[in-house]
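Our consortium's second objective concerns turning raw sequence data into structural hypotheses that experimental partners can test. To show how far this objective has progressed, the report includes one record in full. It was chosen at random from the queue rather than selected for favorable results. The single chain below, 181 residues long, was entered without modification.
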Amino acid sequence: MTVEVLGSIGFGVVAGSFALLAFGGDSLIELISGIAVLTNLRKDSSSNTGNGMYGKRTEQFTSALLFALIPVIGLGMVYSYFSGLKPEGSVLGIAIAIGAVIVMPYLYVEKKKIGRETRSLPLSIDAIESVTCIFMAVALLGGLLAEYFLGIWWADYLATGVILAFVAKEAVESYGEIREE
């Protein structure tokens, strides 16, 4: 996951690809969320109360991170477009996207299974983030391939818009799950 974050952000800066930057930002949120969920699981398992206090905080924190990412992606995309930035294709970005398309389904299945077994809502929310990451990786891959092979620079903005829609959907769903408790 750290490679995905650093690679997406680094290659995004080099190629001027906001889709790669947005994907890297979401990957960073997912990494932070995973750390928060792991911390939550450890604290809940070590406490004798089992009241899930840490779980509620983790859910709120994860949801807040997703909502914070929405304006970063949206405003960055608009600024990049109107400033005339024309992204270049990135072979290494394509490799990152392919890696995510391969790895994320496995992570989703495992997180969902463990979330059910432990009855951990934060882990289940984190699993949903992995599903969203799969779709974002596919959108990113499509945009990067169109840029690299066809020279369609605006495909990066289209891919970024798709990623933004998935992040917004993910944020609203996580907030809805928190409110249902």
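The partners drew two points from this record. Residues 53-82 form the longest helix (30 residues). The two ends are 29 Å apart (CA to CA). Both points have been shared with the crystallography group to help prioritize constructs.
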